[in-house]
Give the backbone structure.
Amino acid sequence: MSFNRLITEKKVNHKINKMKKAGIITLMVLFLMQGFSQETKSVENPENRGNIYQENTNIIIGDTLLGIQDDGESVRIRIGNRRLEILEALEGKPQIRFENYNQYRQNDDIYNFPHSRDRDEIKKKRYRRFKGHWSGIELGFNNYMTSERNLVMPDEIDYMTLHSGKSMGFNLNFTQQSFGFTGFLGLITGLGLNWNNYHFDGNNNIVKNSDGVITMLDPAGTLKKSKFTTLYLTLPVLLEVQIPTDSKKINLAGGVIGAIKLASHNKMVYQNGDKVKSDDDFSLNMLRYGFTARAGFENFQLFGTYYPVSLFRQGKGPGGYSLYPFEIGLAFTFND
């Protein structure tokens, strides 16, 4: 076999291999484009313009979702944090290598995957990829105080005194949206459900009279448990700052929580096991807002919320008093 013939066959095999690779790349792109509604880009290597033997094929979908490069000597396919590299061989089988990406090392290929994005653009987007801490579950103690910021109820409404150890609230924050100013500072909003259970310390409950004023309800029997429950839909607007500590973060947040009343009821359980439950609006304020602050480490937070809006409507509270609710507790978020 002549030398020229050998060269010719190698060139033909080289072109066939390139056609196969182009076909594989085209099929993969068509498949992935059906599964992901991401922007697709084809980028030409400016260093190789005008050189038909060094032409590159580069395809990017998303930031790091999919990247494909064919430079004539190798094919690099990146999906997520994994990369497959196929090195062409003129004779014998091609070499295949698998690699993983470390998203937390700036010198890793996630910043240098050929033509996927400019490094500054990637850093800018990561800079704004802020995730706040709201969605999750919260459990804590709730109570209320008088306008003089006193937890002790006046004598004339002593029946509103609560059993502090049993008066507990539960919050289910089921959705959130984060707006990052930087990678460590941003605004958070979302939606949540707020249950407050007020357990009375005395052998009584409350009822709304014909004038809509809250008064004492005498159960005419010995109670094992007596409580008053409210349910609100909440919407927060929080400013959060995150402080890196090694690979973890301390998060501090504060802001306003608006709420709309969804339901309320009282419940009494007698010593003999009988139960009495009554649904009513109890002259509660339909709308309210509160100030909240929270501090935590990663997904665990301490939180406190105070509502400067009276629990009951003006002039309809027990004995004409205004009572201002608050809650303190622990939160576990699902954001990360």
